[in-house]
Amino acid sequence: MVGIWQAYAGTYLIVAGIAMLATFGIPLLTVPMSWARLMRWEIPPPGQLVTFLGRSLGLFVSVIAVYAFKVAVTPQAQPFFFQLMLWLFVAMIGLHVYGALKRVQPITETIEIGLWVVLLLVTLAFYPVG
Description:
76% helix, 130 residues
């Protein structure tokens, strides 16, 4: 299964970059509290720390997403970037499972575990093994 679609690794990275920017990067960077409400998080009283952390996460996701575009046309960098994405997806699965077990997150975050598992499997399928 690993690498069965490796010929399309660059295209996958472009699609992944667009998806990361649209769903997490730009919303967290620009409107973190609105994104949190959409994801059913309980919003604490106004505070700069929460907004700052949301924007910081949005910036991180945006940088990773934009870098996907660069790596899409740089085949020699693709194995490293795919490994980075795989480790991030494994970490996100662990983070969301922990939150679900502790019951400290909204249901949308628990459902998101499935998204991270699918992303992990799809990324493995596009992994540039050669």
